[in-house]
Design goal:
Helix content: 10-25%
Keywords: Membrane, Protein transport, Transport
Pfam families: Adap_comp_sub
Protein name: AP-5 complex subunit mu-1
Structural class: alpha+beta
Region (Disordered): 181-200
Order of helices and strands: EEHHHEEEHHHEEEEHEEEEEEEEEEE
Strand content: 25-35%
Membrane topology: Peripheral membrane protein
């Protein structure tokens, strides 16, 4: 449920009428236009809405002359859901305009109805109507205060808080909560300093101790063919994620990545829209072209104004001299079974201590596995015949030689077909090695403290 627009009006027995506050939500209005199609009715300016509301509520004239659209016996008014008849180009009927009044206050909102414009579902069946009335009642209780009759100063101070209140309870036109009637008249969030305006996407502000959490994660993407006609490919894909709790409307935070003296430059850098400025040479370095030895090598500074929720600050790729694990994989078919030979070697520059390390050997376009006679020099082997999959759990460490191997034969005598893959036909197959190292960055990038 969403609200297209909201108004707060003050009056004194129908006189001294003024719109004290209004808020429109363009994204919700765009949805309303899409849903209504050719029957879409534009929400007029605040002055026109004010006159239409006063007329419908019978407050436009002390004498209250008869109006057929409002006072005819055949007109069934479903208060507080009103009809506003808009004249002129793009005119029509705005429905349901929800309006509640108490004392000098009139609160009105126009909820979005997710139904065809030509049909009017019963009001009781529209969730947007009940949500809109709840929002108006909550705002009314907040503005009137605990006594139900606000003084001019109290009302003025609460009206000044409405932009901040709506950011909390109705961000982007979607009611999430109602303000507490006993809330203090002082702003619950710091008032923006100077001319800074709080972004619409930032639904609240943090108060308290500043905390910035930054995490750097790297994933090695390697394809080794074991064939001189095909060049092996590998790179490192890194992401930096942040969760910032910092006071202020648009606080400035800077995260810096550094490289060792002989580190490879970061390539294909992509950043979050909240990053305010960046050296142009950082964005122009790509892995598509040959990497220039004189390319920018840091430090990489990312100044930004963070959102409240966790987000990905940037991503990058990095070229490394060799992959962390080198491997060979050989297949030979004999008598309806495959003879396997696998060898994996951990590079000497990589720490020999994993959270986990395992190799997956899938087999496609064959019947389900039958007899499996495979031995490993380290770790253990799990067999999933239904999936035609061997899972080699190497463990948390390679042996001192930093080499492990697997050898044996697998038969496919099952009656049911196994999984298929259009690329892995005949003896075309692959091994997927998965491992996790904590506090080790293959690409060399580290977060400066």
């Amino acid at each position: 449920m969403s609200v297209r627009a909201l108004w707060i009006i003050t009056h004194e027995k129908g006189e001294s009428v003024a719109v004290q506050f209004s808020r429109r939500y363009p994204t919700v209005e765009h949805r309303a236009k899409f849903l209504a199609g050719s029957l879409y009715v534009t929400v007029p300016e605040d002055g026109a809405v004010l006159q239409l509301l006063l007329t419908e509520l019978g407050l436009s004239d002390p004498d209250k002359p008869y109006m057929a659209l409002r006072d005819d016996c055949f007109h069934q008014q479903h208060s507080p859901a009103l009809e506003l008849h808009v004249e002129g180009p793009g005119g029509g009927v705005l429905w349901p305009m929800l309006a509640i009044s108490q004392g000098p206050l009139i609160l009105a909102c126009l909820p979005l109805v997710d139904a065809p414009a030509e049909s009017r579902p019963p009001l009781a069946s529209l969730f947007s109507v009940s949500q809109g009335l709840t929002l108006l009642a909550g705002l009314q209780a907040f503005l009137l205060g605990s006594k139900g009759k606000p003084d001019s100063e109290g009302l003025a101070s609460r009206l000044a808080m409405m932009p901040f209140i709506l950011l909390q309870v109705c961000p982007l036109g979607t009611p999430l909560d109602i303000p507490q009637p006993g809330a203090s008249t002082a702003p619950a969030v710091p008032t923006p300093a100077g001319t800074q305006k709080q972004p619409a996407w930032k639904t609240g502000l943090h108060r308290g101790r500043a905390v910035v959490n930054v995490a750097l994660t790297e994933m090695v993407r390697s394809m080794q063919y074991g064939n001189q006609s095909r060049q092996d490919l590998w790179d490192v894909y890194g992401t930096v994620t942040c969760k910032c709790e910092v006071e202020g409307v648009l606080p400035n935070v800077t995260v810096t990545l550094t490289l060792p003296p002989n580190g490879s430059p970061l390539l294909d850098v992509q950043v979050h829209p909240c990053v305010s400025s960046l050296d142009a040479s950082i964005l122009t370095a790509t892995s598509v072209e040959d990497c220039d030895s004189s390319a920018f090598s840091g430090p990489y500074k990312f100044p930004f104004s963070p959102p409240l929720e966790p987000f990905r600050l940037c991503s990058y790729t990095s070229q490394v001299p060799v992959p962390p694990i080198l491997g060979t994989y050989q297949l030979k078919e004999e008598d309806n079974q495959l003879c396997l030979t696998v060898s994996l070697k951990l590079h000497e520059s990589v720490k020999n201590g994993f959270e986990y390390c395992e190799a997956h050997l899938p087999f496609f376009n064959r019947n389900q596995m039958g007899n499996v006679n495979v031995k490993v020099t380290s770790g253990q082997l799990d067999v999933s015949k239904e999936k035609n999959l061997l899972v080699w759990v190497i463990g948390q460490k390679f042996p001192k030689s930093r080499e492990v191997s697997l050898e044996g034969a697998v038969g496919f005598s099952g009656q049911l077909p196994g999984p298929t893959d259009p690329l892995c036909t005949d003896l075309t197959a692959y091994i997927k090695v998965r491992f996790f190292l904590s506090c080790v960055y293959i690409g060399g990038a580290t977060i400066a403290k």
